[in-house]
Design goal:
Elements (H helix, E strand, L loop, with lengths): L13 E6 L9 E5 L6 H11 L5 H20 L4 E2 L4 E7 L16 E7 L1 H8 L5 E4 L5 E7 L8 E3 L3 E7 L9 E6 L14 E2 L7 E2 L3 E5 L7 E11 L5 E16 L1
Length: 254
């Protein structure tokens, strides 16, 4: 017999902001609320924890009965008040056309939800816990020494390297891959004239999630950060401004 596990789940409201590239202003963003789904099992566990006389399975059975009745009512064409939170109702999914529309002219139906005053009031009083600024910069998940397939960030001069991450594809005339020497704090030095550019002729794979290239022979042994500069946007669209990503420290050896 299968056993269901009921878990409590707490979620925090966060908003992710992405720069609006269609706006001339640098202070314009497109935002969306991160969707943290509280499942039926989570809700059941929360209710059971606060009501010791009710078993999780009794609550689940009641919830299933309500769900079945709501579906049955909607299927019959009723608008249904859902626990005082709002109303589920049937609406047309598109425009009706034709000189003399009939049943076959109906494009179909969709389910809509109209929140109650209580729900609207709740939304007005929600407080944001966290705002996240979506970064268009390249990110590094793995750095692999292709020569021996190690991921210890030890790279050999003249040998292949594979980077796995996101937004890595080299796009734009000013884009490229560099090895930047690091300072005493293991940060890339600011003087970019001392960075060593990876020759474009040695880049064997150039994809948004994967780069493969050869470590320049002229590098001195030591610690570096890989730097990727690109104008790679979503769907291979060119970004207006150059995006720059830095890897963690890698060690280059002969």
């Amino acid at each position: 017999m299968a056993t269901k596990e009921f878990k409590n789940a707490d979620s925090l409201l966060s908003v992710t902001l992405l720069k609006n590239n269609l706006s001339p202003s640098d202070n314009s963003f497109i935002g969306h609320v991160t969707r943290n789904v509280l499942t039926l099992s989570n809700l059941i566990a929360n209710i059971a924890e606060k009501n010791e006389g009710l078993s999780s399975y009794t609550i689940e059975h009641s919830a299933n009965l309500l769900s079945d009745e709501i579906l049955k009512a909607c299927r019959s064409g009723y608008a249904v008040d859902v626990l005082g939170l709002g109303t589920l109702y049937i609406a047309l999914s598109g425009a009706v056309t034709g000189e003399k529309p009939n049943g076959s002219s109906i494009p179909g139906f969709k389910i809509c939800f109209s929140p109650s005053a209580k729900m609207r009031s709740m939304a007005e009083n929600i407080k944001v816990d966290k705002i996240v600024f979506a970064d268009s910069a390249p990110s590094f998940d793995k750095i692999i020494n292709v020569f021996d397939q190690n991921e210890k960030h030890i790279l050999k001069k003249g040998k292949g390297v594979r980077i796995i991450g996101t937004k890595l594809k080299i796009m734009g005339d000013d884009a490229g891959i560099w090895f930047a020497p690091v300072d005493e704090q293991n940060e890339a030095i600011k003087d970019e004239t001392k960075w060593v550019l990876v020759s474009s002729t040695t880049i064997s794979m150039n994809k948004p999630k994967t780069l493969e290239f050869y470590v320049p022979d002229e590098l001195e042994d030591g610690n570096y950060r890989l730097v990727v500069k690109t104008r790679c946007g979503s769907g291979d669209k060119l970004l207006k401004s150059l995006a720059t990503g830095f890897s963690s420290v890698v060690n280059v050896v002969s």
